[in-house]
Amino acid sequence: MSSTPTRVYTARLVGLPIFDPQGDQVGKVRDVVVVLRSETSQPRVLGLVAEVFGRRRIFVPMTRVTNIDSGQVYTTGLLNMRRFEQRSTETLVIGQMLDHSVTIVGTGVTGTVYDVAMEQARNRDWVLSRVAVQEPGKGLRRRGQSHVVAWDEVTGLTRREDSQGATQLLHALNEMRPADAASVLHDLPQDRQLAVVAAIDDERLADVLEEMSEEDQVQILGRIGTERAADVLEEMSPDDAADLINELPTETAELLLDLMEPEEAKDLRRLMSYVDDTAGAMMTPEAVILGPDATVADALALVRDPDLTPSLAACVYVCRQPLETPTGRFLGVAHLQRLLREPPSSLVAGAMDETLENVRPEASVDEVAAHLAFYNLVAAPVTDDGGHLVGVVTVDDLLDHLLPENWRDRGTRSGRRPGLVTGAASTPPRGASRG
């Protein structure tokens, strides 16, 4: 293991890119697989759980890892593409060890695990060597004191817990992009997944749900109760929420819509009224909309909103009152690139592009794709027969409809994209050693 630091903290590994010897990224680190032997014997690290294209989880033995530094992991390039399945003798450090209750030998201090360090032993095997423990907060202190101790100085890590918390795992998930957090949440054991879902706030859960498969969305929504499910749906993008509700039984869908705020439910019902795989069904009603008397400065202030996706922030839509969909008469689009070249005090109406054709709600997926490609757009306005803006269809929503169903859960196919997976080794015989 040349140039590899002597100690690596596993929570910091999650999300790091994995590269082959040619410098091409082959995946991301998702977890660390170990075998627990006893309270005093350091567990052997078998390898990493890596996510490759299509959110497929594979196992990367530590014998295939050539270097780990602060920003990436390097491998030999020989990756077995067989889907990872955890064995009964194995433990996932991130998924199962974080938030475990332990006691520090000698002092009797109790706390929860928030990180675990691994390092190479003299025989070149990787082992878990240090445990980072945080005491509960006391008095006015929100966070308790932290301790980093040797593996054999704590007890309780090999004991199964029925009520393991989720604080530290939740902290790790909050540091990830929603798509990465969704992938980690998908592969957690059910009890850990439920603990995380119960602890996460509604807005963050909504962001994560939008990146999950429909099957996962329905399962999680069914576990959190109807009141909270309605709150989470309100936090989701309307088009994603409408797609999710369409996957639910009719009675459940109506119950959730009744529990939502009337205006939010009204938008969803309108989106659900359109035929599947049309511009109306895939569009979002939440665009950046301004009146013709607004200034360029007004427009730039709105597109700076960090909650906007890049495709929604790329354009400002100019309409007559009212300025919520369905709007008054749609006047035109002002592209962000053009707005950046205009004086801030000038009117946004003076920067409009009035030459583009609008998309009709009944336009098919292929027609929308052709429209965006022909005009080199990342988003396009959708207008009704009266010339009112009813929504905006974006390239990311289009891709969701063009890609195969449940594309998030699909592994790589034959003819995989170059640079993502290289030198796949043959599948080992059933029951073969991980190493």
TrEMBL record:
Where are the annotated segments for Disordered? 407-435
Q: Which CDD domains match?
A: CBS_pair_Mg_transporter
In this entry, which stretches build a coiled coil?
none
Query: Which SUPFAM superfamilies does its entry note?
Result: CBS-domain pair, MgtE N-terminal domain-like, PRC-barrel domain
Sorted keywords for this record are: CBS domain
Which part of the chain is the CBS domain? 352-410
Highest taxon of source: Bacteria
Which PANTHER family has this protein been placed in? MAGNESIUM TRANSPORTER MGTE
Its protein name is Magnesium transporter MgtE
